[in-house]
Amino acid sequence: MKYITVLxxxxxxSCKKEIKKENIKVVETSRVDYLPYYNDESFTPHWLTPxxxxxxxxxxxxxxxxxxxxxxxxxxxxxxxKIYITDFFFTTCPGICxxxxxxxxxxxxxxxxxxxxxxxxxxVMPTTDSVPVLKTYAKNNNVIDNKWHLVTGDKNDIYSLGxxxxxxxxxxxxxxxxxxxxxxxxxxxxxxxxxxxxxxNGLNRxxxxxxxxxxKALKEEI
Length: 222
Description:
Blueprint: H1 2-30, H2 53-56, E1 66-67, E2 73-74, E3 83-89, H3 97-110, E4 117-123, H4 131-140, E5 148-151, H5 155-165, E6 186-190, E7 196-201, H6 205-219
Parallel strand pairs: 3-4, 4-5
Antiparallel strand pairs: 1-2, 3-6, 6-7
């Protein structure tokens, strides 16, 4: 009787172990090779192969000319061969911005020693968020200069970037003008070729954790 009991236990644990192995295999084979690409406000994923003709012709963030908290000019050259995470905020925001800034600080910490990853936060109130104001905000929020750029500039340029190129406002079909305030909790992941590779809720802890995972995955792309 004891022999039968021991045999049954061995069979049970052996089967359980085999099931675990099989589950691991399923997870490994179901992983995508690359993060998707995005090119409009619907954020429909496009599964392209990096380096392909399709990828090279796909939507890219255009050049821009803005000033950061140090009064330095920030353009796409600042992000040459860099991955960056971007958002839109304003320094006097009493609502979502403080939490967004706190979560962006967590992303900064996750890649603090990684020179391939930068952060870019655009002020949506550039007339009040001057360079000195941004510098104070940066100091109060542990922003690392040249790692995390807080930028100001021409309002039309910033709003056009946000709505027409980053697609941060997902109000499908709703036409907005420069007089309509740009306010969004979205973080975007941009690859080294200026393509949008992910959109994340900047207020959600799980979404931020996924962003960090996706940055690491992006670094592994050829």
